[in-house]
Every structure is written in C-alpha cells, then in structure tokens.
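Example (one chain per record):
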Amino acid sequence: MPTTPLVRRRAGIAAGAALALGTTALAGAVPAFAATLGDYEIAGVQFVNDDCSRNEYAIDATITGTTDDVAGFDRVRFEVWDDGTLMDSRTLEVEVGATRDLHAFLSFVGLYGHGAPGVGIQISDVDADDNDVSTLMSEDPFYPDDVDGPCTFDVERIGGPTRIETAAMLSEQKFVMADTAVIATAKAYPDALTAAPWAAQLGAPLLLTNPGGLPTATVDELTRLMPTSVYVVGGTTAVEDQVLADVQAALPGATVERVSGSDRYGTAGEIAQRVVQDSSAELFVASGQDFPDALVLSALAARHQAPLVLVKHDEVPPATDAALGALSFDDVYAAGGTTVLTDDVLDDVAGGVPWTRYSGTDRYATAQQVLEQFPAEGKVLVATGQDFPDSLTAVPVAARTGAGVALTRPEAVPVGVLDEVERLITGFSFPLITIVGGEVAVHDTVKTQLLGLVGGLADPTERSGAGSSESNIPQG
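Predicted structure:
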C-alpha cells in the first residue's frame, strides 16, 4: 500500500526549502527483481528573482541492490517531471547485495508549469539499457519552496574575494542540502585533489580551511547546512587539531572525523579506499608533486565514481602501493606527459591492465583532452588553471549536476577548451556555464567569451518548457 511521506523543515537548508521524508510510495506491488528503496529525503527550492527562475531538487535515498543489471550492479534512475515533461534525470548504481545512500541532484531553468500542481519526483529501477523495470517511489505533486536568491542563466559567476569564500559561496548556491561535508586545506592541492571525487560521491560540498583554524566563511556554510558528518582531510601538518575543534564547536551534534595518512600519498590512499566504485572499475592517477595536469582529471574521476591516487614522477610511493593492493580496477587513466609521470610508473600502477594517458602541450591542452571525455549535458564549470582551489571545489558540483570542468587562463579561454565548452552546451535550450572564482582569478574578458557561445539563444521566457497536463508524471 502507498504511504504518505512526512513533510518537515530541516534547519540549515536555504530559507523555505521544502522537504519530504518517507518510505517507499508505490502505485502497486514492487517486482521481486527490483531494487529496494528504504528511507528517502527530498529537498526542493525554486529560486525566483526579476531575471529568471531555477528549480533545484536534492534527493537522498537508501537503496539496496538486488538485480545484476551490469557487472554486478543494480541501476536506479532519479527523475523530476513537470506537466508531463521530463525535466532532468540521473542514473546511479548500487552493488547487488549492498545497501548504500545515493545522492541525486536534479535541476531545470524556469518556473514549474501551471498545468498539474507542483512537480513530480520519481525513483525507478531500470535495466542495463535504462528501460523502466518498476517505480520505487513517486511523489506527484511535490512542491518546492519559492525563495529569493541567486538565479542567473546561460553564464553565471560564483566567486568571492578569496578561495575559501569562493568554496563557501559555491556550496551555498549549489547545495540545497547536504548531510555530509568534506574539508581540506586551502594552502596545498593534494588533499583537495583526491578528496573531491569522494566528496562528490558523498553528496557533500568540498569546503576549505586555513591550517590553524576554521575561517568564518566555512563556519557560516557549515551552520547553514548543518551536516551530521564532517570529514577533515589531511594530517596535522596540513590541518591542525584546532580545525576539528572549530568544526565540533560549530556543529555540536555532528560526527567529525579526520581522514589522513602519513603523508599526501598515504592520505590519498586512505581516501581512495573509501570511494565506492560503480560497474566500470577504473583508477585515476595524478602527480603528487604538481597540480596543473590533474585538475580536470579529478572531475572525471568523480563522474566515474572512481578513486584517484598520487604517485611521484618516477616512483610509486609505498603508501600508494599499499592502497593499490586494496583496490580493484580494470582500466587506469592518468594526466600529464612523461616529464610528469613516466611510463614505468604507470606500468607499475596498472599491474598489467590497460592504461591511458591524457597529455597535451600545456596544462590547458591536457585539460582539453580530459574534458573531451565528458558527454554533453548542457552544463560546464569554468575555473582558472593557474591555481587549484576553485577547480577542485567545483568537482562535487560538477559531478552532481552532470557538468564538465574546464580550465581557463585568467584573461581568455584557450581555443581548444572553448571548443569543448561549446560542444558541451550545444543543442540545449537552457545551458548553464558557471564561472568559479572572482574577477581576479577569471577576468571579465572570459565571461564575454562565454557569453558569445550563448548569445544566439532566446530569452529564457521565450524558450520551450514544460507543457500542460493533469499530472506531472505521465500515467500508464
């Protein structure tokens, strides 16, 4: 029998955010071969201002895999519907026999339509070809809360005066809710590089801190989100114990845990073993001695739900070797030429499985090659390639929204990267390019370039949207 989920307010979510809590709500019995849905939670916000509106929905669901759809994994699709039109969807996987908390983020530009009330949120079990097997949960109507807030379209900028404030602003504007947060030092790249894919899988923002204490911007964002779990990445040299004390003071009821190894390689290995891989068992490898080539690789690892480990130019550190022994993978991907990572190092890491190297004439050409691996889904995040923080804090946002991450020079987007950005947004009625970072990191000349890619689009109010229907989710 269907159950009616409870609706409650949750402290820490953007003012007025609507949530629904419940157990499986079905129109009929669930086939024995369908995945099992436990508790779920939906947060929905409709940002509205004078320029435009945008709908965002965060769905957390506990799923148990039951059917081998592909390589021992069960596939589940999360959807948001409006007036009979599918507005956004995301397919995730859970290993057969395992129970996991999955996190899906769905969004669309514009107000929800005026046919059926609200929107429809649905979780479905799907097969290997993405065909529906059964409906695990359906809420129609679900009402997001209207809130005043940032709402831009086509090209937006999210950036503060510092890297720490930019990370906090990115979280504030892109995470409707988060039960988990990940924190890394703002002073060095390795911990953030390897933590970003893990944060993406946890449905968590990646926030930044000073080594000696938690900055105000990060404290404010944590108290807005009110996560129940916070992971602080890195040893005491990177992040002192005072940071953990500051987190605990800001969130007295939260579980605060340090995740670290003996050095950056050990920390990366610890994180890699916490990433739950999907049906494509892949491993990503980056240099632990410099960051430029690896920035976009972190985003690709997040998209593939794959761990990322660090090595030296011509050596696999013992901590990395130990982590590799605990990981299972069929393919290895690395970024950077032979002056960054030797062939022998990649051979040692791969241990006989195939490996692929992405390498260009400079960091931007390498980033372009990695960006070419992302499918077009209408969304791109653009950050400076001169430093690491903005691009890495963008990774969890990119993974949850289906966006690629592109690197730019401060004053101009390199031609090859610009071509990839255009590919990723072409054919979409409501593309969104998000510049991550302030005007010092990414100049307004870059924004002008990006606006040129969407200049031919009609005003959002004139673009096609949802139709009219008595229910949001098609019946029958």
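Caption: The chain has a mean pLDDT of 89.
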